[in-house]
User: Fold EXC6B protein from Alca torda.
Amino acid sequence: RSVYDGEEHGRFMEKLEARIRNHDREIEKMCNFHYQGFVDSITELLKVRGEAQKLKNQVTDTNRKLQNEGKELIIAMEELKQCRLQQRNISATVDKLTLCLPVLEMYSKLREQMKSKRHYPALKTLEHLEHTYLPQVSHYRFCKIMVDNIPKLREEIKEVSMSDLKDFLESIRKHSDKIGETAMKQAQQQRNLDNIVSQHPRISGGKKSKKEVCASSDLEVKNTSPMSEQDSGILDVEDEDEDEEVPGAQDLVDFSPVYRCLHIYSVLGARETFENYYRKQRRKQARLVLQPPSNMHETLDGYRKYFNQIVGFFVVEDHILHTTQGLVNRAYIDELWEMALSKTIAALRTHSSYCSDPSLVLDLKNLIVLFADTLQGYGFPVNQLFDMLLEIQDQYSETLLKKWSGVFRNILDSDNYSPIPVANEEVYKKIVGQFPFQDAELEKQPFPKKFPFSEFVPKVYNQIKEFIYACLKFSEDLHLSSTEVDDMIRKSTNLLLTRTLSNCLQNVIKRKNVGLTELVQIIINTTHLEKSCKFLEEFITNITNVLPETVHTTKLYGTTTFKDARHAAEEEIYTNLNQKIDQFLQLADYDWMAMEPGSRASDYLVDLIGFLRSTFAVFTHLPGDVDVHSTMSGKVAQTACMSACKHLSTSLMQLLLEAEVRQLTLGALQQFNLDVEECER
Assistant:
C-alpha cells in the first residue's frame, strides 16, 4: 500500500527483479552441488524399471493363470448366488402363500356354503374373512377383488335368506289348516285323556300329560344340522290312524328358515327391519285366514277348515314367540288375537244364523268348544267364545223347536185317536216303560185290554225327553254350573211345551172335520200328559242334579199347556155339537098355518135327539180308569149336554120369534109343543 501510495512501484519492481535473480543463482548453486546424487538416482531408477517390468510380466502371467483357473469358480459362485436368490424367493413365496392360502380356503368355503344355501354359516365365514384374514394380505390384487365382493355377498345372503323366509311364510299359509288340524287333534286327545283320568284318578299319578310335554318341547328351539337343512318350511306328514299318536304341531313345521333369517339380519344389523317385515306379512296372512268362505255355513267341514287355519296361524305364532327372542312379543300376539277373536265371533254369528239343522248347530258348538280349548291350551283368552256359545244356544233352541214342531205334527197326524189295545203282558210293560202310567184296576183286567189314551201320549212324552236330552247335549263342555244347565233346559222345555206343542195341539183341535170322538180322546190324552209333568220335573232333576226346591229354579209350565189344550178341545166339542144342532134345525119345516097337530114329534127333532143320544153314549162308554171316567168324561158330558140343551132351546125360541112368522095357528103351536115335550123327555 505504501508502494502505491508513494508512487514508487517502478523502484519496487526493480528491487523485486533483483531478488528473483538472487534466488535463481542460489538454486543453481544447490543443483550443481547435488548433481551426482541426481545422476545416481536416475541410474537406480532405470534399474528399478527393468526389474519392475519383469515383475509386471510375472504378475500378468500369474493373473492370467489365476483368471483361467478362477473362471470355473466364478461360474459356480454365480450359480450359488442364483440358488441363494431363488431360495430366498421361495421362502418369501411360501411365507406369502401361507398367509394367502387360508384366505383362499375361506373364500372357497364361503362359496361352497353359499352354493349349499347354508347362509348363516356363510355369513360367519364372511366375517372371519373380512376381519381376520384379508387384512394380512390386503396389498394383493385378488384380495382387493374379494374386499369389493364382500358387500355384494352380504346383500346376496340377505336377499336369499329373505327369499327363504317368503317361501316359509307362503308354505305355512298353505299348510296352516293342517297345522291347526293337528293341534285340535292334540286338544281332543288331551280332553279324552282328562276324561279318562277324571274317571280313573289313580292312574294319573306321576305321569306327565301330553299337553305339558308339548308345551315343554315348544319352548326348545329346533336345531337343524347345516347339512340337512330343509328350507321348504313344512315337513310331510302322512295321515295317522285314529289310534296312533298325533304328532305335535311343532313337528310339522321346520322353523329353521325363520331362525336363520333372524340371525342373518341380526348379524347384519337389520334386525328391526326383519321384525317389521315379518309382523307386517303375518298380519296380512291373519286377515286372509280370518276371512270366512261365503258358503261356510253349508257344511261342518267349512267351519272346521276355517277353525283349523286360525288355530294353525296362532300355533305358529306361539311357537315363534317362545323360540325367538323378540321377533314377536306378547303385546303383538294379544293384538292379533283380539282382532282374530272379534272377526271370528262376527263371522260365526253371521254364518250360524243361516243354519236350520240342530244337528249341524250342535256339531258346530262342539267344534267351537274344541277350537276354544285348543287355543286356551296355548294361553289365549277364550271367554268371549263361550259367551257367544250362549247366544248360539238360543238359536239352537229355536232350531230344535222347529224340528220338534214337525215331529209333533207327524205324531198327531198319524195318531188314530183311539185307546191303545194291549194283547199281552209284554206289550203292556213296554208301554208302561215308555210312559209313567199306573192303574190298579187296569192291571187286574185280563188281556186283551186297552189303555185309556191313544198312541200319541207315550210318543209325545218320549219326544219331550228326547228334546231335553238334545238341550243337555249343547250344555256339555260349556263350563256351566249345574244350576245354569238346569235353568237352560227348563226354559227351553217350557218353550217347547207352551209354544210348539201347544200350537200343534191347537191346530189338531181346530182343524176341519175333526170328530167328537177324536176331541174326547184328545181331552183324555192331555189329562194323562198333564199328570206326567211331575215325572218330567223329576227327569230334569235327575240329569242336572238340581233339586226343584232350589232358589230361582224355573218351573215347568206343562200343566198349563195341557189344561189349555183340554179346554180348547172341550170348547170345540161344544161348538161342534151346536153346529150339528144347527144343521138339524135347518131341516125343520113347520107349517105355522096347520089346523091340526101331528101325532108325534117332528122327524128332524127325532133324528137330532137320536144323534145326541149316540154322541153322549161316546162320553159315557169311554175306556179308562174310574177317575177319568167319573170326573173328566162326566164333567165334559154334563157340560156338553147343558150347552146343547141351552143352544137347542134358544134356537127353538128363535124359530117362533122369526120375523117371517107373521101368524100361526093353535095346531102349529101344539105340534111345536109336542117337539118341546120330546126334548124334555
Remarks:
- The two ends are 209 Å apart (CA to CA).
